[in-house]
Structures are given as structure tokens and as C-alpha cells.
Design brief:
The chain is α+β, with helices and mostly antiparallel strands and 446 residues long. It has three domains: 256 residues, Bira Bifunctional Protein, Domain 2 (BirA Bifunctional Protein, domain 2), CATH 3.30.930; 38 residues, no CATH class; 102 residues, 3-Layer(aba) Sandwich (Rossmann fold), CATH 3.40.50.800. Helix content is 31%, strand content 27%. Helix 2 crosses helix 9. The chain binds adenosine-5'-triphosphate. The site of adenosine-5'-triphosphate has 16 residues, from strand 10, strand 13, strand 16 and helix 9.
């Protein structure tokens, strides 16, 4: 593939491209927006959906030892008491005594307010769970929470899943879905928001085998990012120090990515031991142990958890794909996505909007779209349309011109990375596209 000319992109450039091309918009923009809440537009939704589908395929569909669930966001409030979230899912909050701005104490670089240099008051613990009430009456008796993680649904459904699937250890339960955290200082675009989507998997295993599985899932995740195009030099594994481990974890490792503002966590892979199952056994009074037939023994499984953010991963794919090539008049902005991550794989473009070319281009489009996620675009000049497709990272553009309809029934395929154009008979088009996509997959996987 063409070597990238750009090493890093700044966040402002990404935010403005995202808006201009329909990746990500500010939530409720016409009302001035809602702090750190974002909406995915027509192009961004395809990107995020690809990220989620590729994860689901690698994690669930391609494996015999992981199954999926899709649990409700609202859960019994005791779940969050047992998990420790009610008592300890909090961050230290400090307030400036002068301007009253609030900050997360552990993220501050100085002891004075960054805004006005005022002094801070005493820190207090601020619980990050959003509360609401179930039923028509608001009272303390019917307080429930928007889930701050998807993981707990896998623990409380452990027995249901195990008995219905008859899975033996080791096996995992995966889920994707929304989580909510009332973050004190959200920011950096979609990196830290109050509503976000997680992709988590709880892998239940025999105690004693947990450390090996922990390593396995760290490698698995690294491979997943690399094989979908994130550059190796932008990824790193960071083991947690003992004093930063969450309350449930025996060992945790982050996979960090070099975002435009610096290194940040994409995913945490934790060894959660038997902490959660035991906590739920105690609070619910239900037995969540496992009978190991081979060992003729009953025990509570250990759990290793890869916990990834769909929005953060999508942002990493976007940031890493961004490239700019210097041109004669203006530079060419191109997103060099892996072809399976790219929002659209193909664009079909009639050379001009015309009563001869448009129907033929539509016919070609109808064939190609049955196999590849394809856009049809006949607005504006062909040069502008190529530029637009480059800016949303479409790997291949198929152009229908006058020769197509008048003489050769062939079309031109333009490759995003090599910029090569090849002429291909319409009859062989799907195969020819497929061959180029296969090659681009190979080129982009690290
Ligand atoms: P951080 O240290 O950045 O606050 P965390 O360690 O609390 O994150 P986890 O509880 O491990 O995060 O959640 C797993 C994953 O969910 C994170 O790696 C991240 O990708 C995603 N995630 C967590 N919080 C947010 C958020 N506020 N906005 C977007 N994604 C998030």
C-alpha cells in the first residue's frame, strides 16, 4: 500500500472532517449541543457498525467457546450493590473555591485551578452512576441505575447461559451495548463521553488457568487491532501497577493507542478472579458455582475480561487512517482504512449525471451492492466525488463512462491507495473488486 505521508493528525482536523463528511455530529446541535455527547451520522454509523460486527465475528461467531447475549440496560439495583458500584464506583471530585469549576482530582496536573488558579476545597467521592426511578412514583424505594458497564449482565446470567448451552469451562459470554457514566471531566471528542458503547466478554475458566488465559486474551486483542489495520507503533500493552488495580481485579493490562493528544486506553483486560460470581452468590443467595464433571468437583469459576469501547476503537481507527498527500494545488486527504473497517467498500460513479450514464451506473450499482457495502454518487464533478470518497476512506471507486455504454461494457476501478485505474468488463466486476479488496486486506493488516 502507499506509504503514509502523515504520522499524526490533530484532533481539531478530525472533528471538523467528522462533521463535514457525516461521521460524527454534536448531539442536539441546534440547541447548542449537550456536553460531550455525540451522534454518529450516515458515514460514522457504518464505521462503528463495522467495528462492532468485526469484533462480534472474531469474538463470538468464529469461536466455539464464546456465546453472546443482549441484556437490558436496566437491572435490579442489588446487582450494583453486589458488584461494588454503589459503594465504590466513584472518582475523587474537587471544586475550585473561587470559580466553582469541578475536576477529577487524579487527573489534575497542578494543585491550583487550571482556569483561575484558585484553591481547591476538600476532595469528595462522586459516584459515576446515573440514577433514575422505575415506575411512575419517584422515591428512594424505586431508584435504579443506568448500567455503568455491560459485564454484570454476564455474571448474573452465568447459570442461565451455562445450562441452556451446556458449555463446559472454559467458555465466555460476550455482549455489546450502551453504558453510562456521569464522568466528571469528559472530553477529547468521543474518547470519554457520558453515554458510550462497550464490547465486553467474560471468560469463565478453572482457577489456576486464569493467568494463562489473561495472557491469551491480551494477545488476542492486540492481534484484532493489528489485523484490522491499526499500526503497531501506535499500540502498546501497559500492565497496571498494584495501586491502580480496580477493586475486583487480580491483574489488569491496558491496550493503549496513541491518540492525537497522546496515549490513551482503548481496552482493559482484567483477571476478575471469582470476585463477581461470589459477590452475586452472597447477595442473591443463589448458587452460581460450576460442577466440573472431569474433576468431579464443584467450584466458582475465575473470570478473565477483555473490555473494549466501541466508540474509542472507532475513534482510533479514524485517527490512524487519516492521511494527507501533498498535491500540486491542494493536498489530498485520504482515510486509509482497512477495507472491512471502511464505512463503504465501493462507490459507483457515473462520469457525469446524464440520461445515458445514470441508468447504466445504477445497474452496475445494483449488482455491486449485493456483495459490498456500496454508495452511489452522481452529484457534482467527478473530481469532487473522488475527493469525497477519499475523505471517507472508500477503497474502490467504479466509474461508468461513455465508452461503457457505447462500446466496451467495461468500467474503471480506481484504487484509493495506489491510485491505479484498471479497466474491467462489467461481467467480471464483482470478481475484480473482490481481488483488490483481498489484496488491500493483506496490505493493511499489521
Ligand atoms: P478510564 O480509565 O479511561 O476512565 P476505565 O478503565 O474506567 O476507563 P473500563 O471500566 O475498563 O474503563 O471500561 C472498558 C472500556 O470501556 C474502556 O477501555 C473504554 O474503551 C470504554 N470506556 C470506559 N469509559 C468510557 C467513557 N466514558 N467514554 C467512552 N468509552 C469509555
Amino acid at each position: 500500500m502507499a506509504a503514509r505521508t502523515l504520522k499524526n493528525v490533530d484532533l481539531e482536523t478530525l472533528v471538523s472532517l467528522s462533521k463535514r463528511r457525516g461521521f460524527i455530529f454534536q448531539s442536539s446541535e441546534i440547541y447548542g449541543g449537550l456536553g460531550s455527547v455525540w451522534d454518529y451520522g450516515p458515514v460514522g454509523v457504518e464505521l462503528k457498525r463495522n467495528v462492532k460486527d468485526l469484533w462480534w465475528k472474531a469474538m463470538v461467531r468464529d469461536r466455539d467457546d464464546v456465546v453472546g447475549i443482549d441484556a437490558a440496560i436496566l437491572m435490579h439495583p442489588d446487582v450494583w450493590v453486589a458488584s461494588g458500584h454503589v459503594s465504590s464506583f466513584s472518582d475523587p471530585l474537587v471544586e475550585c473555591t473561587n470559580c466553582h469549576r469541578r475536576y477529577r482530582e487524579d487527573q489534575l496536573e497542578s494543585e491550583a485551578c487550571p482556569e483561575c488558579e484558585g484553591e481547591f476545597g476538600e476532595p469528595r467521592q462522586f459516584n459515576l452512576m446515573f440514577e433514575t426511578h422505575i415506575g411512575p412514583v419517584q422515591s428512594d424505594d424505586n431508584t435504579i441505575y443506568l448500567r455503568p458497564e455491560t459485564a454484570q449482565a454476564m455474571f448474573v446470567n452465568f447459570q442461565n447461559v451455562q445450562t441452556t448451552t451446556r458449555k463446559k469451562l472454559p467458555f465466555g459470554i460476550a455482549q455489546q451495548g450502551k453504558s453510562f457514566r456521569n464522568e466528571i471531566t469528559p472530553g477529547n471528542f468521543t474518547f470519554r463521553t457520558r453515554e458510550f458503547e462497550q464490547m465486553e466478554m467474560e471468560f469463565f475458566c478453572t482457577p489456576g488457568e486464569d493467568e494463562e488465559w489473561h495472557r491469551y486474551w491480551i494477545d488476542f486483542s492486540m492481534n484484532w487491532y493489528r489485523s484490522h489495520g491499526l499500526r503497531a507503533e501506535k499500540l502498546m500493552v501497559r500492565e497496571h501497577e498494584a495501586d491502580e488495580l480496580p477493586h475486583y481485579s487480580k491483574a489488569s493490562a491496558d491496550i493503549d493507542f496513541e491518540f492525537p493528544w497522546g496515549w490513551g486506553e482503548l481496552e482493559t483486560i482484567s483477571n476478575r478472579t471469582d470476585y463477581d460470581l461470589k459477590a452475586h452468590m452472597e447477595r442473591s443467595g443463589k448458587d452460581l458455582s460450576y460442577f466440573d464433571q472431569e474433576k468431579n468437583e464443584r467450584y466458582v469459576p475465575f473470570v478473565v475480561e477483555p473490555a473494549m469501547g466501541a466508540d474509542r476503537s472507532a475513534l482510533a481507527f479514524l485517527a490512524d487512517a487519516y492521511d494527507e498527500e501533498p498535491g500540486e494545488k491542494e493536498s489530498r486527504v485520504v482515510l486509509r482504512f482497512h477495507p472491512d473497517v471502511a464505512p463503504f467498500q465501493v462507490a459507483v460513479l457515473p462520469l457525469s449525471r446524464n440520461e445515458k450514464l445514470t441508468p447504466k451506473a445504477r445497474e452496475v450499482y445494483d449488482t455491486v451492492r449485493t456483495v459490498f457495502n456500496t454508495q452511489f454518487d452522481d452529484a457534482q464533478s467527478i473530481g469532487r466525488r473522488y475527493r469525497r470518497q477519499d475523505e471517507i476512506g472508500t477503497p474502490l471507486c467504479v466509474t461508468v463512462d461513455f465508452e461503457t455504454v457505447e462500446s466496451d461494457d467495461a468500467v474503471t476501478i480506481r484504487n484509493r491507495d495506489s491510485m491505479e485505474q484498471v479497466r474491467v468488463p462489467v461481467a467480471n466486476l464483482v470478481q475484480a473488486i473482490n481481488d483488490q479488496i483481498v489484496q488491500m486486506r493483506k496490505d493493511s493488516a499489521g
